[in-house]
Structures are given as structure tokens and as C-alpha cells.
Design brief:
3 domains; four-stranded antiparallel beta sheet; single chain; Immunoglobulin-like; 17 strands; alpha/beta; about 20% helix; about 425 residues
Length: about 425
């Protein structure tokens, strides 16, 4: 997927007689699959360097320099100098970087998210002699880009794309294909920004998943945290406009037929055919439990010719608005306002609509562990408590303070006029 394309440096359009510098061992020795038991025997492997040489034959000169070694650094200084010398005289510079297999595999965890040091040294050295570097990444897990993306013109994130990765990357670089991929994860500014940073890898054989539901973009967006590239992000060689967003609600939670329809029109405002992904996010504005600011609940991908407009539609059912209740052991929708946001990433939202949903109140049977507030919100529980003369309950401010305390704790409090035995009588009467 295309993460950056300053000055529309891509797709590459080398003029006749121009020089294209291809730098990075991964252009010659592709990293296209995982390590360990995920390895397979490919029927063939497309090599990006060979694909570029073939595609640009008779048009531009392709010059290669490894730039860095894989698994060794003893020749890195010499390799770096060769790469800098080639880049200095080139019209276009393609830098193939990524994570070697020994840096990410099963059986161990990564301790950082940076590219290898020899690659970073190379990249900064190249940036000193060329101002339009194009970086092509090959990596299984996210890598940090915040320390260098301001020094390059374009970033094409190819991940581990399989045996045809080399040819696919060249098709994108030369504009034979138009990138339309979107990030399925957030690229953070630094590792420490991750919501699990303080809990992982744990201690004494135990890992506490303390982030709960706040993983990935759910945490970054809720904290309004700066990121390098947000969830759902991805550029194209054309541009799109999303507008005329409409939200309609039919059915109800009570009847089990709730349906929320979200429609929008998408226009290709550029000069190339391409595809855009319209993303639908939902947020519970005032939830009684911890919920993310917004969550992706639907999306629609549309292919458009230049100037073409199409309407896209996405249907949301009850689950799109529900949370999992640990106490009730079921999915629950609360009455209240919900935000529906539409955009092309979790951070680029072009329209936000608010809808009101009514839902039956679900509660556990009242018990001694139930809070005073839960008793007062339950019609029958409130009637039973009202029959007793409890002086403490005459003070609304005090009720606000003690309302979250369980009844078995409040029992026998001076002023409650309720013993533990009397509490059990109330429960029996319920």
C-alpha cells in the first residue's frame, strides 16, 4: 500500500536515457514470506531487480547496489559507499528495505520496531545526496517510520506479499497497477505508544492483557494519540471525494430487527482509474462501560473511472452497536446516542451523523452484591426500599456517593436502618 507520495513522485516515469538506482539487498534477495513453519516452497519467485530491468529495458539504465548485508555487517561500510555513489548520479532512486527473517519469526518476540541499524544508516546517507528517495518495504510486522519518513519522497509498504511480490511491486512503481490497499493496523510513532507496552512481555510466566478492548486503533484514536499512519489509511495515484452521507434507521432493538443503512456517494476526482474504500465507524457517545471512541463496523470498496461517481451502501445490524457484557454474558445495546462517522481512514472522517437508539434495559437479578444504584434503578427493588425508612437515602448528594457500593456493604451502616438479615428478607421477597 502507498503510504506517502510527495510531489507525485510515483508512478515512476523514467525518461529515455535516464538512470534508475535500485538500492537494497532485498531488491535482489526478496523477502516474500515468513520464517519458521510458515515457509513454503514457491513455484517461482519474482525478483524486483530483474522485473525492473525487464520493464525498463531500452528505456532507462538500471544500476544496482546492495547497500547493506543480510545477517552480517562486516562489509556494510563498503556497500553503503557504493550505494551512495550510484544514488548521487541517478535520476531516480528506489530503496528496498525491510526486516530479515532472523528479525521476525515464530519462537521469539521482537523487542523493537525499528529497521535494522545498517539499513537506517544507509537511508540517511542516501538522503544526503538525493532528495526524492522512494522506499519499498518488505516486512511481516509494522516498522517504525517516524525517524526517517520526512527524508523520503515516497513509501510503498509491500509487507510479505508472496512469491509474486517483486513483479507486483514493480507494477505499482511504474503505474501498471494503481495501489488501493488500506492499513489493517496503525503505524505508531514509537513502540512505547502501543497500549500493551507496559504489560508485555509480562513476568514470571504470566502476561496480563491489561489493554482489554483498547488494542490497535481503538486505543490510539480514543487517546487522540499522534500516529505516523492511521488504521485504514492508504493512498492512490488518483484522488476521491466522499460526500452526501445519509443515515437511516429502521426496526428496533426490542423487536430484534434493527437495521441502520449508511449511504454515501464517491467520486474519482483524479486522472486515473482506481478504487476507494469507504469506512463506517460507530461510537457510543455515553456508554456505561468502557468503549472505544469509534470502531470500524462496515466498509465498501468501489472501483471508479476518472470523473465517475457511484453510491455505496453499508448495512449495520444490532451487533454494530452492542458491547459484550461480562455480567450478563451476552451482547448488549444501551439506549442513547450513537455517532456514525464515514471516511477513508479512522482519522480522516468526512461526515459524522448522530442517531438515537432505544433498547430494553437488561439487568441481572438483584442480590446482595448489587449496588444501591442498581436497586434504585430496578422498579421492584426501588419499591421495596421505598417502604423502609432509610434516612441516608433522603440526601441525594449522599446517594450519589454511596450509590456504587454493594448492598451487603451498606447493610448495617448507621442511618441505613437495614441489617444483613433484613437485606436477605428483601431478596427473598424479590
Amino acid at each position: 500500500m502507498l503510504l506517502k507520495n510527495a510531489g507525485n513522485v510515483l508512478p515512476l516515469q523514467p525518461g529515455e536515457g535516464s538512470t534508475v538506482a535500485v538500492i537494497g539487498e532485498f531488491a535482489r534477495t526478496p523477502r516474500f514470506q515468513g520464517a519458521g513453519s510458515s515457509q513454503v516452497n514457491p513455484t517461482r519467485v519474482d525478483v524486483a531487480l530483474e522485473e525492473l530491468q525487464s520493464a525498463l529495458a531500452g528505456q532507462a539504465e538500471v544500476r544496482f547496489a546492495a547497500g547493506f548485508g543480510l545477517g552480517t555487517t562486516e562489509d556494510d561500510e563498503q556497500l553503503l559507499q557504493e550505494a551512495v555513489d550510484i544514488a548521487r548520479l541517478a535520476d531516480h532512486v528506489l530503496v528496498f528495505l525491510g526486516l530479515p527473517g532472523e528479525d521476525e519469526s515464530e519462537g521469539f518476540d521482537r523487542i523493537h520496531i525499528d529497521l535494522p541499524t545498517n539499513q537506517l544508516v544507509l537511508l540517511h546517507a542516501l538522503a544526503e545526496v538525493h532528495d526524492r528517495l522512494i522506499v519499498i518495504l518488505a516486512n511481516g510486522g509494522v516498522v517504525r517510520v517516524s525517524t526517517w519518513d520526512d527524508r523520503v519522497a515516497a513509501i510503498l509498504e509491500c509487507w510479505l506479499s508472496g512469491q509474486a511480490a517483486g513483479g507486483a511491486a514493480v507494477d505499482l512503481l511504474l503505474g501498471v497497477a494503481n495501489p488501493s490497499g488500506k492499513l489493517a493496523e496503525t503505524i505508531p510513532v514509537r513502540l512505547q505508544d502501543n497500549s500493551s507496552y507496559l504489560n508485555f512481555p509480562g513476568e514470571e510466566g504470566v502476561v496480563r492483557y491489561g489493554e482489554g478492548i483498547f488494542i490497535g486503533y481503538r486505543a490510539y484514536d480514543t487517546l487522540i494519540q499522534q500516529v505516523s499512519y492511521p488504521f485504514g489509511f492508504g493512498l492512490s495515484y488518483t484522488t476521491f471525494r466522499i460526500e452526501n452521507v445519509d443515515v437511516s434507521v429502521t426496526g428496533s432493538v426490542a423487536d430484534g430487527d434493527l437495521a441502520v443503512s449508511v449511504t454515501a456517494s464517491v467520486t474519482n476526482t483524479g486522472q486515473r482509474a482506481g478504487a476507494e474504500v469507504v469506512q463506517i465507524y460507530v461510537g457510543d457517545i455515553e456508554a456505561s462501560v468502557a468503549r472505544p471512541l469509534r470502531e470500524l463496523k462496515g466498509f465498501a470498496k468501489v472501483h471508479l473511472e476518472p470523473g465517475e461517481t457511484q453510491q455505496v451502501s453499508c448495512q449495520l445490524d444490532e451487533r454494530a452497536f452492542a458491547y459484550w457484557s461480562q455480567r450478563l454474558r451476552q451482547w448488549v445495546v444501551e439506549s442513547g446516542e450513537f455517532m456514525i462517522a464515514v471516511g477513508n481512514s479512522s482519522r480522516h472522517l468526512v461526515a459524522t451523523e448522530t442517531i438515537m437508539l432505544e433498547a430494553p434495559r437488561l439487568s441481572l437479578p438483584l442480590s446482595a452484591d448489587s449496588t444501591l444504584q442498581e436497586w434504585l434503578e430496578d422498579e421492584r427493588g426501588r419499591e421495596l426500599i421505598a417502604k423502609r425508612d432509610m434516612p441516608l437515602l433522603q440526601d441525594p448528594d449522599l446517594v450519589k456517593v454511596i450509590g456504587t457500593m454493594p448492598m451487603h456493604t451498606l447493610a448495617a451502616f448507621q442511618g441505613m436502618a437495614l441489617s444483613h438479615d433484613e437485606l436477605q428478607d428483601l431478596i427473598a421477597e424479590l
